[in-house]
Amino acid sequence: MVRAAALQAADRQGSIVEGKILVTARSFRKLDGPHKQMLIDAGLELVNSPHNQPLDAAGMAALVPGVAGVILGLDEVNAAVLARADALRVIARFGVGVDNVDLAAATARGVVVTNTPGANSVAVAELTIALMLALARHVPQHNMVVKGGGWSRITGYELSGLTLGLIGMGRIGQEVARRAAAFEMRLLYHDPVPPPAALAQSLGLSACPLDELLAESDIISLHLPLTDETRNLIDRSALQRVKPSAFLVNTSRGGWWTRWRCTKHSRAARWPARLSMRSRTSRPPAARS
């Protein structure tokens, strides 16, 4: 993944970018390896963001003047940011989703936007499985009990035999399915684009409508890009179809739901709020009022 982002930052449609490359992606900055040296050897100057969190538009606008490329994390790049980027030629998204970039504004200014599809699929899939295990075995709750001086135990669940509903069966969804199959889970998926037939057969994947998936799944995992069609997909109506005992795991984007609405509904319906969310609409999370 880091090599792909480095190459994309160094090469725009066959021409070498010259000058400064702003690096906001934290993983790119923190990981050691040849990816940084590749850019330096190409004559580029790496400029790391001084911040250790994704930036909003105002924060990005302060950093982009004079840079020829950006290796972008989850920071916001809107039209106002691009207007300040007087030398920008390429944005290499260090990840898959580009919903944090105003693509129309970038195109209008001649800025190429790239991503690195598939590069982090295994990492996200492993994180998804880890969150599923943490929820099923009540790891966070036990951690809090022990830290508080207690030693009580909550009976957990085995993943074996449970039904996993995958909303989205792209690269990451397929990697999650491969790992879940090893736990002997029943696998359902909802995606207008089916996975390869050989993979579906080997893993025992069953396609089904979204309503059926929500109703039958013991664990629901989200793996779709954030678009106008998928935004707020998990709303009050969707939660009403979910089992009270089900778990919901989100390792994609934070715009799948309006958080307040889902939390309100889960409490009102005695749904135990079994949510595990790596992704939020704001990072870090906004302070609660």
Quickly give the CATH architecture of the largest domain: 3-Layer(aba) Sandwich
- What's the CATH superfamily of the largest domain, by name? NAD(P)-binding Rossmann-like Domain
Strand percentage lies at 15-25%
Q: How many beta-strand runs?
A: 13
Helix fraction, binned, reads 25-40%
Overall geometry: globular
Sheet with the most strands: spatial strand order: 10-9-8-11-12-13
Radius of gyration: 21 Å
Give a brief outline of the structure.
This protein is an alpha/beta fold and 289 residues long. 36% of the residues lie in helices and 18% in strands. The strands form three sheets. Strands 10-9-8-11-12-13 form a six-stranded parallel β-sheet, sandwiched between helices. The chain has a five-stranded parallel β-sheet with strand order 4-3-5-6-7. Strands 1-2 form a two-stranded antiparallel ribbon.
Report what the structure shows.
The protein has helices at 2-10, 26-30, 34-41, 57-61, 79-84, 103-108, 121-136, 139-147, 171-182, 197-203, 210-216, 236-239, 259-268; strands at residues 11-12, 15-16, 19-23, 44-48, 67-72, 90-93, 112-114, 163-167, 186-190, 205-207, 219-222, 247-250, 275-277. The chain is an alpha/beta fold and 289 residues long. The protein has 2 domains: 2-114, Rossmann fold (3-Layer(aba) Sandwich); 121-277, Rossmann fold, CATH 3.40.50.720. The strands form 3 sheets. Strands 10-9-8-11-12-13 form a 6-stranded parallel β-sheet, with helices on both faces. Strands 4-3-5-6-7 form a 5-stranded parallel β-sheet. Strand 8 (163-167), helix 9 (171-182) and strand 9 (186-190) form a beta-alpha-beta unit. Helix 1 (2-10) packs parallel to helix 3 (34-41) and helix 7 packs across helix 9.
